Amino acid sequence: MIRFYFHPTPNPAKVALFLEEAGLPYETIAVDTGKGEQHKPAFRAINPNGKVPAIVDTDGPGGREARVFDSNAILLYLGDKTGKFVGAPQDRPELLSWLFFIATGLGPFSGQAVHFQYIAPEGLDYARNRYRREAERHYKVLDDHLAGRAFIVGDSYAIADMSAWGWIDRAGRVLKSEGDPLQSFPNIARWFKAIEARPAVARARAVGKEHAFKKEFDEETRRALFPSNYAAA
């Protein structure tokens, strides 16, 4: 059984998609990051970094319980464990490359673009421009790569596609677009439409719907999400 620690944000969404695609039995455990539940000792014992997603696999290697945190590490772990969505052996180097491209580039720069465009105080135009333009650059890299391709790696749907889907799903917010955010990225748009048509996507979107996550963005939420901003000098 997989215990899946979840909040409805892009990185947990990737893992929800894998679990639904693979048909693995799992239990969703809500972690309300707006209330600071990610900082509780019980969760920090699973992910010392205090972020979602994380999983605990009660049937890990050697039959021992295993904890895994960071969305791309979880995707790779579950893919290797099940043998699903990891592509052909000859595609492994490229699979790892694109997973790390998403983990170190597309994801973080998208997240920072959202932060500085919607959350940070006024007067930080350099930072807003920096992260927005870098997010756009990463989109262009992916768009160019997807020209003539159905999937990011090889000839089959894989964890790299799931990982990118989690963030591309928020393109409108990342790129602060009032129209079609993918208009300038036609290859991503085509790819995204094909992923969206998969039945598991609708099931992944329903994960955690039964839980009333905090929606107010107040001082409690700011302190919970950005604790380093409030650390003593």
Automatic annotation (TrEMBL):
| PROSITE patterns for this protein | GST_CTER, GST_NTER
Write down the SUPFAM superfamilies for this protein, in alphabetical order.
GST C-terminal domain-like, Thioredoxin-like
Domain GST C-terminal intervals? 88-217
Any one Pfam family match given in the protein's UniProt record, by short name: GST_N_2
Highest taxon of the source? Bacteria
What terms describe the molecular function in GO for this protein? Answer: transferase activity
| Keyword terms, alphabetized | Transferase
Q: Does the keyword tRNA processing apply?
A: no
Q: What residues does the GST N-terminal domain cover?
A: 1-86
List, alphabetically, the CDD domains matched: GST_N_Ure2p_like
Show the InterPro entries listed in the entry: Glutathione-S-Trfase_C-like, Glutathione-S-Trfase_C_sf, Glutathione_S-Trfase, Glutathione_S-Trfase_N, Thioredoxin-like_sf
This chain's protein is named Glutathione S-transferase
Q: Which source organism?
A: Enhydrobacter aerosaccus
